[in-house]
Amino acid sequence: MPTLASTAHLRSNFNVLEDYEVGLVLTGAEVKSCKLGHVKLQGAYIAYENGGFWLKKALISPYQILNQRGYDPMRSRQVLLHRHQMKSLIGQVAKPGLTLLPESLYTTRHLVKLKMVLARGKKKYDKRADIKKRDVNRQIARALRQKI
Questions:
Q1: Over the range 96-119, which residues count as b (16 or more CB within 10 Å of their CB) and which as e?
Q2: Is the pLDDT of residue 21 over 90?
Q3: Distance of CA 24 to the CA centre of its chain
Q4: Element (H, E) at 127
Q5: Considering only CA atoms, which of 107, 145, 114, 90 is closest in space to residue 41?
Q6: CA 75 to CA 96: how far, in whole Å?
Q7: Residue 24: how many CB atoms within 10 A of its CB?
Q8: What is the spatial distance between Cα 143 and Cα 132, in angstroms, rounded to a whole number?
Q9: How many CB atoms lie within 10 A of CB 14?
Q10: How much of the chain is in helix, strand and coil states, percent to nearest 5?
Q11: What are the phi and psi torsion angles at 34 (to 5°)?
Q12: Coil, strand, or helix at residue 96?
């Protein structure tokens, strides 16, 4: 499952509560562009509007071989979810501090899939605690290697 586009900073800035694999409504040229990896998810988010979830501010560059007049690379794209997932997410997103973010975009069996996460933003002290924990684990691993 090759990752075509991802947001590397997501796990360091957010606590991920749940993740979902969903589909997107794309045009044919957008699918070809996604398969070539011409996608940026930095700054993108998923919002609930008009009875559905929409991917906002994701950049899918125009497919170079086709001449697409009036193509908007930053347009909103509909996210495809099961009805039960949609109902639970509507309730979750309504809670303060929770948001839906795209984590990565990849292909599976000729389909373009989006991995989205339900996340809560970290405070500065949470980030410091994670860094401290990572440093302590690194020191322990180093001490164990030197002991052997």
A1: eebbbbbbbbbeeeeebbbbbbbb
A2: yes
A3: 12
A4: helix 124-147
A5: 114
A6: 26
A7: 21
A8: 17
A9: 19
A10: 30, 35, 30
A11: -65, -40
A12: coil
| Longest CA pairwise span in the chain (Å) | 65
pLDDT tens digits for 28-77?
888 888 888 888 898 899 999 988 999 999 998 888 776 777 777 888 99
The dihedral of CA 117, 123, 129, 135: what is its sign? positive
Tell whether the model's pLDDT for residue 3 goes beyond 90.
no
* Residue 7 in this model has a pLDDT that exceeds 90: no
End-to-end CA distance of the chain: 37
Instruction: Please state, for a pLDDT cut of 70, what percent of the chain lies above it.
Output: 93
Q: Which CATH number fits domain 3-122: 2.40.280.10, 3.30.420.40, 3.20.20.150, 3.30.470.30?
A: 2.40.280.10
Give the number of C-alpha atoms closer than 13 A to the C-alpha of residue 114, restricted to the C-beta side: 28
Tell me if 53 sits within 8 A of 100, measured CB to CB. yes
What are the Cα distances from residue 31, in Å, to 15, 34, 55, 68?
30, 5, 15, 14
Element (H, E) at 6: strand 3-6
